[in-house]
Amino acid sequence: MNFDVSYTAKDLILYALSLGMGSTAADTDELMYLYEWHEMFSSVPTFFLTFTFWATSTLKKRDLHMKRIPPFPPPLMAHEQVIPKRFLRNRDEHSDYNQFLSNFPVIHTWQSIIWHDRGVEIPEAPSQRGTEGHSSSVTVHVRTETVAVQPKSIGTFVTTQTQITSLDCIRPICTMESSALVMGFPPEKIVPFDIGISRSAYHSPKQCERQEPSFQWSYQTFMSQALLYRMASGDSNHIHVDTSVSEQMDTEQKAPILHGLFTLALGFRAITKFLRATLLSQPSDHRSIKTAEDMVIDFRYLEGKFSQPAFVGDSLCVKIWSNFLVSEINTLIVKRRDPVKVSFVFVIVNDTTGKILVDCGMAEVEISVSQCTGTLLHAESQAEYGKSLEMPSTYVTCGQCGSSYALKKEDLGGGTGRRLECSVCGHAWFQSQNRIMELGDNFEMVELPERDMKRIQMNIEEEEDLWDTFEKVGSVGEVSLVRDDQGRNRGFAFITMRDTADGEKAMAELDGLELNGRALSVRESNN
């Protein structure tokens, strides 16, 4: 039976939220996974791990794929069964095999994923921002097969391989392998089977180094974490809602169990944070990657062995070991202009109990400099549109000041996009090929009036003045002037201080201060 999955931008964002992305002020670099109009909007690579739960038979309507709560076990798993009946020595021994199989608990012991393609395909954005929204979807094909059934005294280990491909099955996207232990299943009832595919074909798990980790990052799970991940992943198993599992275990904490795939995905978050923090820590004139937007991180492989369950409310710590040198990566990127492969070993530990939750974690990523470096909006071809060159029907808009620029897809080069810089306000962003906008009917591009350009630049100066003023009393996170529909300053702004004490200090010291001929009124916002 064939299965496939359709997803939209909303599904990508919901999954990112279920991993806790954007929940703290330090997660600003994760906005690219949470905002559909972000210049670099993309999907968390581990989103593929949810597809075995969302996969639906191609006989069903595709538009219902991720719009309903799937049953448990989901259709793909129910079709193949944990231990397919064909591996029983006496297939006719049990009239109701599903009922017999339900007597044995199943434990997810190991998971891996290999990415063949670079990233998750993003649903095409509408040509204009408006009521249409991001309603388009992407559909991929999902195929799962059992590759090993190994009876042991403790139970039976079953390994499955899942391949995600394009809908026509031509383009491979990723391959996932998963092992489960069916506790207590009588080994004498099983016909051993091994197709010969093993994880050693890519990596051989090894114990983490004994020295201090290169990096560690802690994450505090919140009370609705399991509930949110349940909705985003499609795993509707009741153990992520009630406390029945924790009550049966020798644990003081009575809480729903967190999904192992959620815990593994924290490894992705931690490694990404490690790379961004490390590669951007050098002085800018000594590194090839100048900003976070310049850095391209492609995950090629991720695996982990599940040792202990995590529960809602646990604090989880990801410890990472890597032998890469920042200077070496920068040198290789500059000289070769090719992606540099870096390997990691990691474990995920319960901060409270010290127990290892995910052991023998391994990852491999490719790091490169975005091919979109440089500014394009000052290019001669763009300036000549409507003059010596015919005005195109496509355009891009600066997210900072709202200025629009006539632009063709070819102007963005042969890759996925380029980095652009607004000539009005200086804002820079990554413009992807599939997010260029189409000029609507009865609309045309017109020259930006001189008064609007001056107004924008004056607003920028006012924002900079506010930033400099508030920076004197504490660390500023963001300054945002409130403007009307015409872009005119409405006379007030929101300033986010990174620390509560700094915010209180700003209200005490800056209220009534004169700035550019006007007295400031500084108070806490209602929201």
Automatic annotation (TrEMBL):
Pfam families tied to this protein: MaoC_dehydratas, MFE-2_hydrat-2_N, RRM_1
UniProt xrefs under InterPro entries: MaoC-like_dom, MFE-2_N, RRM_dom
Domain spans labelled RRM: 441-527
SMART domains according to UniProt: RRM (SM00360)
Superkingdom assignment: Eukaryota
Keywords, in A-Z order: RNA-binding
Name used for this protein in its record: RNP-1 like RNA-binding protein
Organism of origin: Nitzschia inconspicua
RNA-binding among keywords: yes
UniProt GO cellular component terms: peroxisome
Keyword Cell membrane belongs to the record: no
One GO process term, biological-process aspect: fatty acid beta-oxidation
GO terms, molecular function: (3S)-3-hydroxyacyl-CoA dehydrogenase (NAD+) activity; 17-beta-hydroxysteroid dehydrogenase (NAD+) activity; enoyl-CoA hydratase activity; RNA binding
